[in-house]
Give the backbone structure.
Amino acid sequence: MTTAATLTQVPVRVDESKCIAEKGCTVCVDVCPLDVLAIDMLTKKAYMKFDECWYCLPCEQDCPTGAISVDIPYLLR
Ligand code: SF4
Ligand code: SF4
């Protein structure tokens, strides 16, 4: 589904070809209640800084370009 290689398997994947953080977008960083998303200073793209997630999904829903996919684990309840 995504071509971006993920270095580690974290629940939130950012499609770097869609992310417009370099244009000043910080929506996902701002909406995450856990503060686990950040903008990578080198790539200027959003990424998951800490592997912790409530699967509350505003990051995925509010991203203006649909760059974020949250993988909700099967066994979550
Ligand atoms: S909300 Fe979307 S476009 Fe904006 S920084 Fe996050 S991933 Fe990138
Ligand atoms: S699903 Fe919620 S907790 Fe997880 S990264 Fe997105 S906003 Fe943060």
Summary: The pocket of iron/sulfur cluster (ligand 1) is lined by residues 14, 19-21, 25-28, 46, 63-65, 67-68 (CB under 6 Å). Helices lie at 27-31, 58-62. The domain at 16-67 is CATH 3.30.70.20 (Alpha-Beta Plaits). Residues 22 and 41 are 9 Å apart (CA to CA).
